[in-house]
Amino acid sequence: MLRRLFDLVYAPLAFAVFMLVLPLVCITVIATPGAALRREVGRLGVRLLLGSIGVPLFVRGRRHLPATPALVVCNHASYLDGLVLTAALPRRFTFMVQDGAAGWPLAGWTLKRMGVEFVDRGNARSAAALTRTLIRRMSEGESFVIFPEGTFKAGPGLLPFKNGAFMIAARAGAPVVPAGVRGTRRLYGGGNRLPRWSPVTVELEAALHPDGSAHAAQQLRDSARAVVLRLCGEPDRAPAEATAEPAD
Fold first, then answer.
1. pLDDT digits over 129-164, tens only?
2. Distance between CA atoms of 55 and 53, rounded to whole angstroms?
3. pLDDT band at residue 198 under the 50/70/90 scheme
4. Considering only CA atoms, which of 89, 45, 44, 98 is closest in space to residue 71?
5. Structure confidence by residue, pLDDT tens digits, 85-102
6. Region 27-46: what's the mean pLDDT?
7. How many Å apart are CA 163 and CA 165, to the nearest integer?
């Protein structure tokens, strides 16, 4: 009863604060010179945003992040996951997201200014070009965060992983760091019109390395998914949801 009463009071207040602070963070990022500094401003801005609505962020396992370029792969449970990972990871990490996000008012411009790569999963030629671009950027020292489920649903559960991220890691010889995010589904997951208070945890585990074999991408995908499934604490939706998909 008390929790429901708290949620009723918290939800509209948190939403109002969120909608006030987020545009200010976006505008500050857009106006900041230099990609590295923009990402640092974004990291601090997200931490300010979460703090302003009373949400604690716990990050565990940062020691597992390699000093070399790497791919972090994480479960996807909420619209806030990208923001949370921005705050949790060093500024050398940026994201690969669906191309539709590029058209979001204000947020799309902010993502572009932070060096995010946009992918059109329905366009094979575009996906191939993006793979080459990511490999080049990783060779120049950048690291990426990818949500290999490609989307999220309102109900809890880890969806099947798409192949694209792991093909990039195998071709680039880059380590893959499995990560799990918890708490964002309750905070502002699919189907929620207003936020509900929840602490948020990001946990990273030891990097997985491609072995150079012909099946390296598939092995990375399966191994990473097993770790992410354990870290995220949600049920496995692959047996019911999985279908035969072409490689991204």
1. 888 888 899 888 889 999 999 888 889 999 999 998
2. 6
3. very high
4. 89
5. 999 999 999 998 888 888
6. 94
7. 6
Is there a contact between 218 and 111 (Cβ–Cβ < 8 Å)? no
Q: How far is CA 100 from CA 60, 74, 118, 122, 143, in A?
A: 31, 20, 8, 12, 22
What length is written for the chain? 248
d(CA 150, CA 180): 15
Distance, CA of 39 to CA of 87 (rounded, Å): 9
Does residue 247 surpass a pLDDT of 70?
Answer: no
What pLDDT shows up at residue 2? 80
CB 109 within 8 A of CB 30: yes
What are the DSSP calls for 11-57, one per residue?
HHHHHHHHHHHHHHHHHHHHHSSSHHHHHHHHHHHHHHHHHHTT--E
**Domain segments of the chain as ranges:** 2-241
Among candidates 43, 41, 35, which has minimal Cα distance to 62? 43
pLDDT greater than 80 at residue 81? yes
Instruction: Indicate the fold that domain 2-241 takes in CATH.
Output: Glycerol-3-phosphate (1)-acyltransferase (3.40.1130)
